[in-house]
Amino acid sequence: MTTDQDLRDKLRKIEALFAGAATPGEKAAAGAAADRLRARLREAVESEQPDEFKFSLQDPWGRHLFVALCRRYGLKPFRYRRMHRQTVLVKGPPSFIDGVLWPEFQELNRVLSSYLAEITDRLIREEVHGETGEADEVADAPRIGR
């Protein structure tokens, strides 16, 4: 089972990877990774015209993560009135959105989803029922009139 500290360490390593950490020492000092990414964003803002990007994030935990990641880098996630809650828009330089923000989100979301699934399965197994698998698949239901 993954502990909270293990998850935090994984998230820091992912951040360091996307920040371009070159040595193990830099990866260990992942606190500076966000600063390096913000610097990359500033460079991209100076050299590119920002575009509006639309993301549809069905999973509420993933959506919270994506919005927090945008805010961490100074981007302002939003949606227009009457848009679905799972829609998140963000304006920014395409190179940063496509090359840093989205890939980093995908990797962080993968790790976080795995962690949440592990905790959920364990709690169900221990508190509800020992079997946590999917429902059994059976032959098609009989047709009426046959």
Task: Please outline the helices and strands.
Blueprint lengths: L3 H16 L4 H5 L4 H15 L3 E6 L3 H13 L14 E6 L1 H34 L19
Describe the structure.
By secondary structure, the protein is mainly alpha-helical. It has one domain. Helix content is 57%, strand content 8%. The longest helix has 34 residues, at 94-127. It is flat, with a radius of gyration of 20 Å. The relative contact order is 0.14. The mean pLDDT is 83.
Concise structural overview:
With 146 residues, the chain is mostly helical. The chain is 57% helix and 8% strand.
Q: Count up the domains.
A: 1
What count of helical segments does DSSP give? 5
What's the helical proportion of residues?
55-70%
Nearest-angstrom radius of gyration? 20 Å
Spatial order of the strands forming the largest sheet:
1-2
Low-confidence stretches: none
Largest sheet: 2 strands, antiparallel
**What portion of the residues fall into strands of 2 or more residues?**
5-15%
Topology as H/E string? HHHEHEH
Taking the alpha carbons of the first and last residues, their distance comes to 50 Å
Let me know the number of strands.
2
Structural class: mainly alpha
Calculate the mean pLDDT score and round it: 83
Globally, the shape reads flat
Give short descriptive properties of this protein.
two-stranded antiparallel sheet; 146 residues; 57% helix; flat; 2 strands; 5 helices
